[in-house]
Design goal:
about 500 residues, 8-stranded antiparallel sheet, 3 helices
């Protein structure tokens, strides 16, 4: 047997121990390359408002974050102050990958979180992921970048709006239309929509603005629609909203009042003033029908009559009056009276017809209820005034004692009546009329100018109220019985 070499064995043990010590020293001198992900917890909070937006609108908010070390070793690696954090948007996702999502941005410090929609954004619900990342290097030279995320939700809606305008528009006239939000009931702010008009290129109508901002509170945005060329058929123009909203298609028919409803006033003869007529009557009258008016509905160019368009005549819808003045007062004293008597120089008895519709008033009379196509309505009238040729009043002294009578004779009279044609649209559902057009004429006669007949002077357009169907006949010289005498001037009778 080979003898044992104790020196060689010792050297082998020393070499092994040296190798182990070298490995231990290397482990102490070289730090770990990374820290485990669960060493730190990053909590992110974010908020945004409103949760529902439309095209052209934005939701805004902000984000914050906090960092917590989960074990002593991780705590030792934290810097003495809070390390810097950076925020970013990592994704905006909808129900389908093909959806065009709204844009989302956030500042690096977490402020200015914004989600914006435009006309190309697909309506729907979206989830916005907000990330916060801390970044620092510890004393041993190791980089740390723990991250955390949170989400906020926002819905992009395609609002529904309602357009309201006049269904019948007169050539050369303008009327106001409106657009208002109908669904959802409210949005946080207004939003722009574009009004589109079918067949407007041929000049039938024009709009004051093709883009309007619809308030988010449900109130209306206004626009003006003007009539140009006559429609070729009923409802041949359509107004709707696009680019950011859905709407009803509102149909409009443009008509020419002269083509659809013609009303022609005709004056036939001058008036005759008779201050002292037979039977003690003073009068300002024409011998026959003084006013003749004709109204007719005509067909549109395509031969069709607009549904519900009818026309007729109306008398005394605006303010009218008739009256007679008495003057040349003569005092007939009681026997023996010697007092000084004062009295009006003139007395005016006048009936005024107010500018208001009153179906119970015989002077707010209608003629020719709604007429059909090409069937004329013809009205005749002979407005005038007949009253006693004298008026007698009692005379009293300053103590109230009766001292005689004062007789006045007729010296002047006037007839001031208004007439108009109307063009009405009858609702086919309930029969209620609305009046998109009317024109007025005035017949203004005075005893000192019995031929002074004027047409279209000062009459204006009558205010025709809904809910009234003109069917009553025209009245001639019917007067109210409650007219009172209006004194004018002052005269004195001496003994």
């Amino acid at each position: 047997m080979k003898p044992h070499n104790s020196k060689t064995g010792l050297n082998n043990w020393i070499g092994r121990i040296s190798s182990i010590l070298a490995l231990l020293m290397l482990a102490v001198l070289v730090p770990s390359a990374s820290v485990r992900a669960d060493d730190y917890t990053v909590t992110v909070n974010a908020s945004i408002s409103p949760a529902q937006i439309a095209s052209g609108q934005s939701a805004s908010g902000g984000a914050s974050a906090s960092l917590v070390a989960n074990n002593p070793a991780a705590t030792a690696e934290l810097p003495s102050s809070v390390p810097p954090v950076k925020f970013s948007i990592t994704s905006v996702t909808g129900a389908s990958p093909s959806d065009t999502a709204p844009s989302a941005t956030i500042n690096a410090d977490g402020s200015g979180l914004s989600v914006s929609a435009n006309n190309s954004t697909t309506p729907g619900a979206y989830t916005v992921t907000v990330q916060a990342e801390y970044d620092w290097t510890d004393g041993a030279g190791t980089s740390h970048s723990p991250q955390g995320t949170t989400t906020v939700s926002v819905s992009v809606v395609l609002p529904a709006v309602s357009i309201l305008a006049t269904p019948y528009l007169r050539v050369g006239k303008s009327m106001e239309g409106s657009v208002k939000l109908t669904s959802p009931s409210q949005l946080s702010s207004g939003f722009p929509v574009t009004l589109t008009v079918a067949t407007s290129g041929d000049g039938r109508i024009s709009l004051s603005a093709y883009t309007v901002t619809v308030p988010g509170d449900g109130s209306s945005a206004k626009f003006t629609i003007s009539g140009g060329m006559t429609s070729s058929r009923v409802n041949d123009i359509s107004i709707s909203a696009s680019a950011g909203a859905t709407s009803n298609a509102y149909c409009v028919t443009v008509f020419d009042l002269n083509a659809i409803c013609t009303a022609i006033p005709a004056v036939n003869q001058s008036y005759t003033w008779i201050p002292n007529g037979a039977g003690g009557v003073a009068s300002l009258m024409a011998s026959g029908n003084q006013v003749t008016m004709t109204a007719k509905v005509n067909a549109l160019p395509d031969g069709a009559n607009p549904i519900g368009i009818q026309c007729g005549l109306v008398q005394n819808e605006t303010s009218s009056s008739r009256g007679m003045m008495y003057g040349n007062p003569e005092l007939i004293r009681e026997q023996g009276d010697t007092t000084v008597v004062s009295a009006p120089l003139t007395l005016l008895k006048q009936w005024s017809i107010p500018a208001a519709l009153d179906s119970g008033d015989i002077n707010s009379s209608y003629y020719a209820g709604p007429v059909d196509v090409n069937v004329p309505a013809i009205g005749h009238d002979a407005p005038g005034i007949r009253l006693s040729n004298t008026v007698t009043i009692n005379a009293h002294d300053s103590n109230g004692k009766f001292v005689g009578t004062i007789i006045y004779t007729a010296v002047w009279a006037h007839v001031d009546d208004t007439f108009a044609d109307w063009c009405a649209v009858i609702d086919p559902d309930n029969g209620a009329p609305t009046y998109p057009a009317s024109d007025g004429w005035r017949l203004n006669i005075t005893s000192d100018n019995p031929s002074g007949i004027t047409k279209g002077s000062g009459a204006g357009s009558p205010i025709l109220a809904d809910g009234h169907t003109p069917t009553a006949t025209m009245l001639g010289d019917a007067l109210r019985d409650n007219a009172t005498y209006i004194p004018g001037g002052l005269t004195t009778f001496s003994p």
